[in-house]
Predict the structure of Uridine phosphorylase.
Amino acid sequence: MQLRPAELIINDDGSIYHLNLLPEDIATTIITVGDPDRVHQVSNYFDRIELKKGKREFVTHTGIKNGKRISVISTGIGTDNIDIVLNELDALVNIDFSTRTLKSKHTPLNIIRIGTSGAIQPNIPVDSFLISEYAIGFDGLLHFYEHKNLGYTNIEDAFITYCDWNANKARPYILKYADNLAKLFIDNRIRLGFTATNTGFYGPQYRQLRLKPSQMELMQKLSSFSYQNLQITNLEMETSGIYALAHLLGHHAVSLNCILANRETGEFSKTPSESVDELIKFCLGRLS
Ligand SMILES: O=P(O)(O)O[C@H]1O[C@H](CO)[C@@H](O)[C@H]1O
Ligand SMILES: O=c1cc[nH]c(=O)[nH]1
């Protein structure tokens, strides 16, 4: 079946609609970052940059590091952007743009998020690294796609009961990283974590400037929830969406977090850029 022009939107130069990329522009190992400026911070460490393209918040550099071809792309903030980035990256490798049909051979991508995050356990220091072994999504993105038994229903149900989760919000869903890809990063420099992905930075992460979050008590519930020794460790805004779409599309994903804030102690990193740089070097060292 041919995908119609309003489903698969291809620009005049043959590139995919938002990312502005041609199929040959991306490697099969892809680092995602939230901040477009972080793309340069990553590609600075490449031995050679072969391509720089961008549109809106989606900046991509592809290059070579120690003989390995890697792409780094900025997603902007949030799982709504992740929906665009993961679907378009997948289209670049698994859809034939000339015939507008699905390719018979599936190409899996390795997707590694390098992002920033806030810890909710007092013993997780700022400037430390965390890999999201599990993610719990409050964003609802998974529910917009057909799937069979994806998620950890027992943990989700226990969480919903413990937090008395408001029925007006999306049902939380829980997914795991790709074990094979995660193996590359498991090390005593990086803690295993259970990451909560939120639909905002302020109210949804229980920050109060002028507006009062509706259920402030949930912050304490999030940090005290425990299921067979699994405790929620940190908050950010993309990981569950990346894990959801990677699972659905047959890609491998892990999320690496640089902890910049500790919400329990109230601290914020004094050296955010340097700490993110350390995580970038750690990640590239493991990939190449
Ligand atoms: O540093 P990045 O990758 O953007 O990640 C985190 O920082 C942003 C909020 O400041 C959100 O995108 C959150 O997930
Ligand atoms: O507290 C934080 C820090 C970074 N990113 C988030 O989403 N939350």
Q: What stands out?
A: The chain has a mean pLDDT of 97. Residues 67 and 288 are 7 Å apart (CA to CA). The helical segments are 36-43, 79-94, 153-163, 179-182, 217-224, 239-249, 272-287. DSSP finds seven helices and 15 strands in the chain.
